[in-house]
Design brief:
Blueprint (H helix, E strand, L loop, with lengths): L1 H30 L1 E4 L3 E3 L2 E3 L4 E5 L3 E4 L3 E3 L2 E5 L3 E5 L3 E3 L2 E4 L12 E7 L3 E3 L4 E4 L2 E5 L9 H11 L7 E7 L8 E3 L5 E3 L40 E4 L2 E4 L24 E4 L4 E10 L9 E2 L3 E3 L8 E17 L9 E2 L7 E4 L8 E12 L3 E4 L9 E4 L13 E4 L6 E2 L1 E5 L8 E3 L2 E2 L6 E4 L19 E4 L6 E2 L5 E2 L6 E4 L24 E4 L16 E5 L57 E3 L2 E7 L7 E2 L4 E3 L5 E5 L5 E2 L3 E3 L1 E2 L3 E2 L9 E11 L2 E12 L2
Parallel strand pairs: 1-4, 2-5, 3-6, 4-7, 5-8, 6-9, 7-10, 8-11, 9-12, 10-13, 11-14, 13-19, 14-20, 18-21, 19-21, 21-24, 22-25, 23-26, 24-27, 24-28, 25-29, 26-30, 28-33, 29-35, 30-36, 31-37, 34-38, 35-39, 36-40, 39-41, 43-52
Antiparallel strand pairs: 15-27, 15-32, 16-17, 42-45, 44-50, 45-49, 46-48, 46-51, 47-50, 51-52
């Protein structure tokens, strides 16, 4: 018995060892990564669960037989290119995130699949890319030029094509045969007659699709009968980078620079198409490029979001959730700070996504078809700067800012022909784009330098925010875009130049004007967008006057909702200097007594419209030899004084006989004589126009 047990025990250990080795080998194989860096031809291609196959540098893998993808295919530094001549079954992942921009060799293709046999994407399939995705049955149907891509994209938004059709979403001036959908699953037939457009622009490229999908069951018609020769689409498909990534998928990078219109080309000739339990997330439009570091700048307009275009002989929809992308934001614009004027304009927001699905022979909607329209793109922000005056008296630079217009979102779903099951269609809320903000900051006037050098005027500021886009629909809930906010800050006036007591100080520059206009909220069938607000509208302060004789007047405040402040007047540095007497003051004269004026100078401020006319000086008198008299010469026209008289108090007044009614100074020297004695009197009037 013992001899029999030992061989059995050895066999047991050997079997266990084989199992362990096999398990290790299987696990390593299962979890290993296979890399293809050159084009390769295979007989069959099976990717098991847990295995990743990398297409490095854009090789084409051609499979003569069937292909089953349970693991993951991914690209690295190039597109994912696969040709399958047998049946293609996808239960796993296809992932391609592009990092580089568009080139002549690569127009932004992410995943290109040529499937010549049967096609089945099951509910577990996940397809993700930030580039174009093309799925066709003949390599000649691949869109290989930008013109071909543009044709596919444009056709999806045009109200054209024969057959039974739903889409595109168009402005709601509805044509005959159109149906408008509400979001409560009720369809309103607006016209009983069928209206069919004849122009079919996609004869070669039958289908453009950006899907996100789940379906395994065979295609059935509305009566529940199987439909032969049908392409089945299922799983989760995410193209581009939606604002809200669905759960369970990677964070896909933003589409590379240069890809303006992301497509998925879906062309399988005469095969019928079944969409069941499909969730489709498409990319938003790319934002417009910003413009800056110049004096006249404009942000680029945003780019329109993706479009879905499906064409097949027969289309069946059973639980399809279509998430259209939002329009791209308009580009921001900001000027340099050394500008006069600085002019900035934000780019306009772009259109939301669109779709068109056509069945040439039959179109039936047997389950829910939920459409989530993207929002209109927001307008770009504009920031304008005016330069500060650098030279004496140089005006400040003006600033003009215009926010971008928010995109409209006027949508009604076009239906032509006898599409069955329209009561299963719902359209979610439609929202238009917000207007762009505007900020204008004008420059300060340059300061004066020296006598009579005036300060420069402050720059003017004008800010007009963009209006919100309009959102309209016959029945779906629609909300207009909010208006943008505006802010305008005018420049301060420059200070007047300072002088010495011998001349006038410079006037302060006036503050600049400011005007700000908030954007108007867009109209909406359900809700009007909110108007923007004026955050600030501030006039520039006036510059201070310069010191001198006379002092400079302060500049006036700039006009705006919030006025600036007037500048302060400069300091009066006037020092009255009596002229040298005509005779030696030590000479007592014939009688030993000299002629004396008390005071020896007269100074008065006269305010036009306030002070009296004539405006008397106080307490002037003349003394001299007893019993003597005096005479005076050099009396100006603006001064009242007797030409001669006896010693004692003498009336003197300003009679207002002037021609300059601005703030200025009048001055004269009077020469008195009595016998051989002489004296002079300096008279100064400071006229104020306040």
């Amino acid at each position: 018995m013992e001899n029999n047990k030992k061989p059995n025990k050895r066999i047991g250990w050997f079997v266990a060892l084989v199992i362990i080795v096999a398990a290790i080998f299987w696990w390593q194989f299962k979890t290993s990564e296979i890399i293809y860096n050159s084009s390769t031809e295979l007989e069959i291609f099976n990717v098991p669960v847990g295995q990743t196959v990398v297409f490095k540098d854009g090789p084409t893998i051609t499979v003569k037989g069937d292909t089953v993808i349970d693991g993951e295919l991914k690209c690295d530094d190039g597109p994912l290119l696969l040709t399958v001549e047998g049946k293609l079954t996808v239960n796993g992942k296809l992932t391609c995130a592009l990092d580089d921009g568009v080139s002549e060799d690569n127009l932004g293709n992410g995943i290109n699949i040529v499937a010549k046999g049967e096609v089945e994407f099951n509910s577990s399939a996940v397809v993700q890319t930030n580039g174009h995705l093309q799925l066709v049955d003949d390599e000649n149907k691949l869109a290989s030029t930008q013109e071909a891509i543009d044709q596919l994209y444009n056709d999806a938004g045009e109200d054209s094509g024969e057959g039974l059709r739903i889409g595109p979403m168009i402005p709601i001036d509805l044509a005959p045969g159109q149906v408008a959908f509400s979001n409560n699953k009720q369809a309103q037939v607006l016209y009983p007659n069928i209206y069919v457009n004849q122009n079919n622009l996609a004869e070669k490229f039958k289908n453009v699709i950006i899907p996100s999908v789940q379906a395994e069951e065979a295609a059935k018609d509305i009566a529940g009968n199987d439909v032969a020769d049908t392409v089945k689409i299922g799983g989760l498909w995410v193209v581009g980078r939606p604002v809200n990534n669905p759960p369970g998928v990677i964070d896909m990078p933003t589409p590379p620079e240069g890809i303006k219109k992301i497509i998925i080309a879906y062309n399988f000739g005469g095969r019928n198409m079944n969409i069941a339990d499909l969730i489709l997330f498409g990319p938003d439009g790319r934002p417009g490029a910003e413009d800056k570091n110049a004096c006249d700048v404009k942000g680029d307009d945003g780019q329109n979001a993706f479009r879905l275009n499906i064409q097949a002989p027969s289309v069946t929809i059973n639980n399809f959730s279509l998430h259209l992308g939002s329009g791209g934001f308009g580009g921001n614009a900001e000027t340099d700070k050394d500008c006069d004027p600085g002019q900035a304009m934000g780019g306009q927001g772009a259109e939301a996504g669109n779709f068109k699905i056509t069945g040439s022979n039959r179109f039936q909607i047997v389950g829910a078809f939920d459409i989530f329209p993207g929002a209109g793109g927001a307008g770009g922000k504009a920031i304008a700067h005016g330069k500060d005056g650098k030279n004496p008296g140089e005006k400040g630079g003006n600033a003009i800012a215009q926010g971008g217009q928010g995109a409209a979102n006027k949508k009604g779903a076009k239906v032509t022909g006898e599409v069955s099951g329209l009561d299963n269609v719902t359209i979610a809320k439609i929202v238009a784009g917000r207007g762009g903000d505007a900020l204008a900051e004008a420059g300060r006037g340059g300061d004066g330098k020296g006598c009579k050098s005036n300060g420069g005027e402050g720059g003017k500021a004008s800010a007009n925010a963009g209006n919100g886009g309009a959102a309209t629909s016959r029945t779906a809930e629609s909300t207009g875009g909010n208006g943008g906010d505006a802010e305008a800050i005018a420049g301060r006036g420059g200070d007047g130049g300072d002088c010495d007591p011998k001349d006038d100080g410079g006037k302060g520059g006036n503050g600049g004007e400011a005007a700000a206009t908030a954007g108007t909220g867009g109209t909406g069938k359900t809700t009007r967008g909110n108007d923007g607000i004026v955050k600030n509208e501030i006039g520039g302060d006036g510059g201070d006057g310069g010191d001198g004789c006379l002092p400079g007047k302060g500049g006036k405040e700039g006009n705006a909702v919030t006025l600036g402040k007037d500048g302060a007047d400069g300091k009066n540095l006037c020092i009255l200097v009596q002229d040298e007497p005509l005779v030696d003051p030590e000479d007592p004269g014939d009688d030993g007594e000299e002629l004396v004026l008390n005071p020896s100078s007269l100074v008065k401020k006269h305010v036009i419209g306030v002070s009296s006319c004539p405006d008397p000086f106080d307490g002037f008198s003349i003394s001299g030899p007893a019993g003597g008299t005096w005479n005076v010469e050099g009396i100006p026209q603006w001064l009242n004084i007797a030409p001669s008289g006896s010693f004692g108090p003498v009336p003197v007044s300003f009679n207002c006989n002037i021609t300059d009614f601005t703030t200025h100074q009048e001055a004269a020297t009077l020469y008195f004589s009595s016998g051989e004695q002489t004296a002079s009197l300096l008279v100064q009037i400071n006229v104020s126009a306040e």
